[in-house]
């Protein structure tokens, strides 16, 4: 189906999930999702964790238990790129246990189906909406609505230790941090923060074993933001072929050089 219609479906689903999330005080179990028939065959928890000096930043997460052995299987914090892509996109389009069923759009909410090759077959995964403003994460004040990379790392570290304090059953699990795309910048720094805190005896101690990155961005020095904005807009169908060719010719000299 056309990508624009597909995006509309996802937006509608997000709006429904947002309505549900407003009922969450700290965390709750989700047993049903719009578009999926019957009980979810995996355990999904959603919730908020307050971070920052006054907990002015509220980070939203999705936690999915391993379908094999949650008590003994590894625990992973997975961060989606962007920056600004919700953890829901990683769940539905990358490594999660559920995905959107590709079919002709009929104007209703999209149907969901199980993804057999999900990583949650062997791993407990926390999908985090990071940075603030991503997905359902929000800021209580204007001052904390814009963040640097280092602040993202700080908030993610705070989130992790608070989440584990609230879920002590997972403190002994082997722990990994995963991410993709822009989180190639965030994940290594976060791993270092966790390691330093462990060495300094900051509790709860985290059983850190390693990290994993997919198509990571590691350097911003040679990235032309105008080029990527134009490429993204054209690829998403937001600008026409004619406008793209005009921009390539008249505005951004690098577009022609970088285009595959």
Automatic annotation (TrEMBL):
GO molecular function, one term: acyltransferase activity, transferring groups other than amino-acyl groups
Protein's GO biological process: proteolysis; secondary metabolic process
Pfam families reported for this sequence: Peptidase_S10
Keywords: Carboxypeptidase, Hydrolase, Protease, Signal
Signal peptide residues on this chain, from the entry's feature table: 1-21
InterPro entries: AB_hydrolase_fold, Peptidase_S10
Superkingdom of the source species: Eukaryota
Similarity remark: Belongs to the peptidase S10 family.
PANTHER family: SERINE CARBOXYPEPTIDASE-LIKE 19, SERINE PROTEASE FAMILY S10 SERINE CARBOXYPEPTIDASE
Protein name (record): Serine carboxypeptidase
Species, as recorded: Quillaja saponaria
């Amino acid at each position: 189906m056309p990508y624009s219609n597909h995006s509309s479906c996802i937006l509608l689903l997000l709006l429904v999930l947002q309505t549900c999330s407003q009922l969450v005080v700290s965390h709750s179990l989700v047993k049903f999702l719009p578009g999926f028939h019957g009980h979810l065959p995996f355990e999904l928890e959603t919730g908020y964790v307050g971070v920052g000096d006054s907990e002015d930043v509220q980070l939203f997460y999705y936690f999915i238990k391993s379908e094999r052995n949650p008590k003994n299987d590894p625990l992973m914090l997975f961060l989606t790129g962007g920056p600004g892509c919700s953890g829901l996109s990683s769940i539905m389009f990358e490594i999660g246990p559920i995905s959107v069923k590709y079919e002709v759009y009929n104007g209703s909410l999209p149907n969901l189906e199980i993804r057999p090759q999900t990583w949650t077959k062997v791993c407990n995964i926390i999908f985090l909406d990071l940075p603030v403003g991503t997905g359902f994460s929000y800021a209580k004040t204007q001052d904390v609505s814009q963040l640097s990379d280092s602040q993202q790392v700080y908030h993610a570290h705070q989130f992790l230790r608070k989440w584990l304090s609230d879920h002590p059953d997972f403190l002994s699990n082997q722990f990994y941090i995963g991410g993709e795309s822009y989180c190639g910048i965030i994940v290594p720094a976060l791993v270092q923060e966790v390691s330093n805190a462990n060495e300094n005896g900051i509790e709860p101690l985290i059983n850190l074993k390693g990290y994993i990155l997919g198509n990571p961005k590691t350097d911003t020095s040679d990235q032309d933001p105008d080029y990527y904005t134009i490429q993204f807009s054209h690829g998403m169908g937001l600008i026409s072929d004619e406008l793209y060719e005009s921009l390539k010719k008249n505005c951004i000299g690098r577009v022609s050089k970088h285009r595959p």
